[in-house]
Amino acid sequence: MNPLTKVKLINELNEREAELGVKDSVSWHSVYKDSAWVFIGGFPYDLTEGDIICVFSQYGEIANINLVRDKTTGKSKGFCFLCYEDQRSTILAVDNFNGIKIKGRTIRVDHVANYRPPKDTDDIDDVTKRLREEGCAPNVPQPSETESEEDQAVPVKKPKKDKKEKKKKKKEKKEKKKALKEEKREARTETSASSPVRVKKEKEDTAYEKYAVKGLAGSRRDRPGPDPRNPQDRADEADRFRDRYEGERDRGREEDNRTERNREDIRQRDRSREEDNRTDRNREDIRQRDRGREEDNRTDRNREDIRQRDREGDRGRGRNEERERERERDRDRDRRERDRGNDRGFAKHRDHSRERENRRN
Prior knowledge:
By secondary structure, this protein is of the alpha+beta class. The protein is about 60% helix and about 10% strand. The chain contains 8 helices and 6 strands, in the order αβαββαβββααααα. The strands form 2 sheets. The protein has a 4-stranded antiparallel beta sheet. A two-stranded antiparallel sheet has the order 4-5. The longest helix is centred in the C-terminal third of the chain and has 130 residues, at about 230-360. The chain is flat and about 195 Å long.
């Protein structure tokens, strides 16, 4: 398979997992959880081990590297194997470095399931041999003898408790909560029984008092203002009502008349526009008809001219034919006259010849 297609496939896998939100335990990276080696291919030939370590040390400490070189020339072949101290660094390297460009070349970064170190030969140099054996990871300082064993001891996890003990503790907690709730309820009931019941007083409303005072006054006789029982007051109230509401009616009528006028004006405008459009259409129709008639007249004139030309041509042809016929007649006459003259001359010659013969005899 082409290495560029492998790069695309790995990137597509990562994008799908990011979209679906796949867990780490189900991811395709989990297949390589036991290997901390990574394959790097397609980088420029002039890169050394130090350059590759500088680039790939962004996502973890590098433990070992194997840059594949040509045995005779010692030049790089453009691919290598790299080992991290932590396997999780391989996932970050594959996700972030796969498909990037280094000096114009697209590199491929992929996991390595079973890395097998190359067989040692006689041509190998000391540096690569030491790198393969020891690696390139930093040396961790060893603990001194003076340090106590307690500092070096690894903390041991506490043993898990039995499930039965956990269940018992949960039940005891629930019982304690229930007892506390019951005590609180009892305390509330005791305080409510001992203390007297408090009743909230409503706020006094001054408007309600005024209304109550007016209601007590009750009869309309006591109220200030016109008395409805008095006919004069009734007439005055009716006049006031008429004056008040007639003005409002007049205003409403005026507004209605204005709206009607506006509507009528709009209708007239629309009608005038429609009439103008109709007249324009009629004018356009008349113009088109006139144009059509003019075209028809032109065609008729052209036809008439053609007919006249044909007639004149026919007349000229007839005249020519008559002339030809007259010429033919003249020619026939000339021929006949010539024939007659020839016949006369032949007859005279024959008569002379006969006379001569008779004389001789």
